[in-house]
Write a structure and sequence with these properties.
This protein has 14 helices and 14 strands. It is of the alpha/beta class. The protein has 2 domains: about 200 residues, Rossmann fold (3-Layer(aba) Sandwich); about 150 residues, 3-Layer(aba) Sandwich (Rossmann fold), CATH 3.40.50. The longest helix is centred in the first third of the chain and has 24 residues. It is globular. It starts with a helix and ends in a 5-residue tail after the last strand. About 0% of the residues have low confidence.
């Protein structure tokens, strides 16, 4: 073999070696990521007082199965590890530690509930483990300065409450407002938000503020106290079980206040049907997703994809439940972020991608609503449309309301 041929052969071998080395160098992994797998952890209230949310986790698991059947994310299968925390913060702490320290997940995703997320927020940030798209709208989960590893998904409870306050001033300026609120960050954010919306009139318009503990079996006594206060407008800052109890009790009492519920309690299947569709008629809230039960969306491409998914991957689930819609879009957004990570599956890059989203559209977001985040603005959803329940479905009215970040 001539020297030229030897040199050419050596050059080819060297080039191939360098190519493999460069390809390997481009791949960056933290715990929970390999060439073939991405481990994602989650706690879900499969049991306990907030078990109505269990279907969210089931939808999310089904969506991940669909993605894996289609080849995964950039060729890697997503391993979604779910544990039941019964909506109990101490259990959430125990299960999240197991996910991070034993299962060694890359990130946790969509931990459900304000109190459960709050219980593990500091842990995530000390460990520098991403806590993206937490299923809560409490303002503490959109605070990149103090908690850069935590990002909430839900619209801000405070902002939503403020919108209700402004709505009341415009549509019911002489109302006597009674407020039922869950005694945690969720309820308190709504309480402070609605007062902020009412402004100087809050002191005279709010005639009752009554809290409840999530562990209480019923809220009958709280409803009676609010009714006895003379309130003619009732705002429920609660989760599905208590919202349904309130609607049912108000109907039993023959009380007819203007009734507003927060966005967490708008599920027809988990709230309106258990409370009674007729009793729920006329209730007001806000929304940001398409209602799959609304025939106006029958030919919408995004809704069609959602229905096809439900039929194949979660046929036992209620395709018209907004909880399942929620599970679908949250996982769709997670997959978008993981795809954007490419071969840099480090925890830092997960948060970088999550905080640099620009006008991301999801299948079942309302027209005109998209997701944009920035390193100094972690709010994923900051757009709403008012809605009223007609006894069968939610009817949207008015334009899209956007809450602009403070400058």
């Amino acid at each position: 073999m001539s020297n030229n041929m030897v040199n050419l052969a050596l050059a080819s071998v060297l080039a191939a070696a360098l190519s493999v080395s460069a390809a390997s160098a481009q791949k960056k992994y933290d715990s929970g990521a390999t060439d073939t797998e991405i481990k994602v952890g989650q706690t879900v209230p499969l049991s306990g007082p907030a078990s109505a949310y269990a279907t969210v986790g089931k939808t999310q698991a089904a969506y991940i199965k669909m993605i894996n059947d289609e080849g995964g994310v950039n060729g890697r299968k997503v391993n979604l590890i779910q544990y039941d925390d019964a909506y109990s913060p101490p259990k959430t702490v125990e299960q999240v530690r197991k996910l991070v320290e034993s299962d060694e997940v890359l990130l946790t995703f969509q931990i459900i509930g304000t109190a459960p997320n709050a219980a593990v927020q500091k842990y995530h940030n000390v460990k520098k483990v991403p806590q993206p798209f937490a299923a809560t709208g409490a303002s503490r989960f959109t605070d990149p300065k103090n908690f850069p590893w935590t990002m909430g998904f839900n619209p801000s409870y405070f902002v939503e409450g403020r919108i209700y306050g402004q709505y009341i001033l415009k549509e019911h300026p002489n109302a006597k407002v009674g407020i039922l609120y869950q005694n945690d960050d969720l309820g308190k954010d709504y309480l402070n938000g609605i007062k902020a919306g009412l402004g100087d009139k809050a002191a005279t318009m709010v005639v009752a503020e009554v809290s409840y503990e999530l562990s209480e079996p019923t809220i009958d006594s709280q409803i009676l106290r609010i009714k006895d206060s003379g309130a003619d407008l009732f705002f429920s800052a609660s989760t599905p079980k208590q919202a349904a109890q309130a609607i049912k009790k108000i109907a039993e009492l023959g009380w007819h206040p203007v009734h507003i519920v927060d966005i967490n309690a708008t599920s027809v299947g988990a709230v309106m049907k258990p409370a009674g569709l007729e009793a729920s008629k006329g209730i007001i809230s806000v929304g940001y997703v398409k209602d799959p039960a609304d025939t106006n969306w029958s030919n919408d491409p995004g809704v069609k994809r959602y229905f096809a998914f439900m039929e194949k991957y979660y046929p036992e689930g209620d395709k018209n439940s907004n909880l399942n819609v929620y599970g679908y879009i949250t996982t769709q957004l997670l997959v978008h972020v993981l795809k954007q990570c490419g071969d840099d599956l480090t925890r830092a890059n997960v948060m970088y991608q999550a905080s640099h989203l620009t006008n991301v559209t999801l299948d079942v977001l309302l027209p005109g609503i998209s997701v944009t985040t920035k390193p100094n603005d972690y709010r994923v959803n900051k757009q709403f449309q008012m809605a009223r329940f007609d006894g069968e479905r939610w009817e949207r009215y008015g334009g899209i309301i956007t809450d602009e970040p403070k400058q």
